[in-house]
Design a protein that fits this description.
Elements (H helix, E strand, L loop, with lengths): L3 E6 L2 E6 L4 H8 L1 H6 L4 E5 L16 E6 L13
């Protein structure tokens, strides 16, 4: 069984261990970045879809750090 592996955050390799969450791996790698997640930043997968950083890390996972600001809803059609 593999006990350590790499995940990728913004193109940089991040060491992770079996059973470790993504946020825990990021916290060990770059604590200042991990503290921003959930506040001003969030994680997206390689397709740009938001992910829960509390999920288990897995080998080869690719993540991007994105803005956590809420989506702009001003363009929504209003009922008339």
């Amino acid at each position: 069984m593999i006990s350590s592996f790499l995940i990728f955050v913004d193109g940089k390799p991040v060491p992770a261990r079996t059973g470790q969450t993504t946020i825990d791996a990021i916290m060990e790698w770059q604590p200042e970045l991990a503290k921003l997640l959930g506040n001003t930043r969030s994680l997206a997968d390689s397709r740009g879809l938001p992910i829960d950083p509390g999920l288990p890390a897995y080998a080869g996972a690719i993540f991007r750090v994105v803005s956590a600001r809420p989506a702009d809803t001003s363009d929504e059609l209003s009922p008339e």
